[in-house]
Amino acid sequence: MATKPSTVIAIYPGSFDPITNGHLDLIERGSKLFDRLIVSILCNDEKEPLFSLEERVEMLREVLRRFPNVEVGHFEGLLVDYAATRGATVLLRGIRAISDYEKELQMALMNRRLRPDIETLFLMAGEAHSFISSRIVKEVFRLGGNVAGLVPPSVEARLHKRLHTVTTGNHKHSD
Ligand code: PNS
Fold first, then answer.
1. Considering its fold, how many domains does the chain have in total?
2. Which of 11, 15, 85 has the most ligand 1 atoms within 8 A of CB, as the residue to mutate?
3. In 3D, which of 82, 11, 9 has the Cα closest to residue 44?
4. What is the CATH number of the domain that holds 124?
5. Is 137 within a domain?
6. Would you say residue 119 lies in a domain?
7. Distances from the Cα of 164 to the Cαs of 19, 38, 127, in angstroms?
8. What are the pLDDT digits (tens) for 12-21?
9. Which residues in the chain come in under a pLDDT of 70?
10. pTM
11. What percent of the chain is modeled with pLDDT above 70?
């Protein structure tokens, strides 16, 4: 019979482009459930990210500094293989709405097939965060909408800086 490891390590994987207050809520709650929580950024995703891997690592470190048992990592390839190399037995994921369920079920079943010793655990997103995604935050921000309260203040500042750089760059090109 399998025994419970003395230290339970969980991986919270994602793109985090950028981290939102929805992610942060899940990390805070997850940090109380596991001995160690490794927030892990997927590199080499097919999606073109707004922030580089290095920027995302920096942003996560800034925001997560206050959680002593939370660390930041990154991975490429199969998530379950990375989890195994980090000694993790749990994958933590959040579910916002029913629309998340199908993709999450597919990933959880595939991950279990690949490595049955690693469990995926789901937390329901806090109701205040159930509509937030990195994609929608970026879209609203790009179109001039207010994203205060949706992302940590340091991330909001980086979004402003990034948009300014992009705008300035565009001006240079059109001059
Ligand atoms: O924040 P996201 O984009 O919803 O995160 C998706 C993520 C990173 C959890 C998922 O794309 C992933 O695990 N990718 C690694 C590749 C992998 O292991 N694929 C097989 C299982 S689905």
1. 1
2. 15
3. 82
4. 3.40.50.620
5. no
6. yes
7. 19, 32, 32
8. 999 999 999 9
9. 1, 45, 166-175
10. 0.93
11. 93
